[in-house]
Amino acid sequence: MVATFSMSIWWQGVMDGFVWACSRVYGPNDECERGERMGGSRSTLTSAMEKFLEFIEDLNLIDLPLEGGRYTWLSGTDQPLMSRIDGALVSHDRG
Fold first, then answer.
1. Among the four residues 2, 44, 47, 56, which has the most C-beta atoms within 10 Å?
2. CA-to-CA distance for 95 and 92, rounded, in angstroms?
3. 3-class secondary-structure state, position 50
4. How does DSSP classify residue 5?
5. What pLDDT sits at residue 15?
6. Count H helices, E strands: the chain?
7. In this structure, are residues 20 and 9 in contact, taking their beta carbons and an 8 Å threshold?
């Protein structure tokens, strides 16, 4: 299934019949819509960010921790901007 900012795939195990899903969620590339950032002038959540946080909470998803730091992108300037542009959310529920 492909949506505006996500893709999802469902698999079923041949041996045990266990069904699981993998979803890739990505955000808009418009600078004013980006989140999880350090530096720059933006300090408030957009409506889309708030809806995504509600989605995470409603599904009891767990944001896996990153190894080596909180952010995955650095601007490389004297006063760097840092953003988390990659992450993994999982659920321990079986449905």
1. 56
2. 9
3. helix
4. S
5. 93
6. 1, 7
7. no
Contacts 24+ apart (CB under 8 A), 73-79: 75/39, 79/39
pLDDT of residue 43: 56
Residue spans per domain, the chain:
6-90
Give the residue carrying structure tokens 């909180």. Answer: 70
Q: How far is CA 94 from the centre of its chain?
A: 21
Contact 34, 83 (CB under 8 A): yes
Residue 27 backbone dihedrals phi, psi, to 5 degrees: -105, 170
Q: How far apart are CA 61 and CA 89, in angstroms?
A: 6
Alpha-carbon gap, residue 22 to 80, rounded angstroms: 33
pLDDT of the chain along its 95 residues, tens only?
666 777 888 889 999 998 888 877 776 666 665 565 556 555 567 777 788 888 888 888 888 887 887 787 788 888 888 887 777 888 876 55
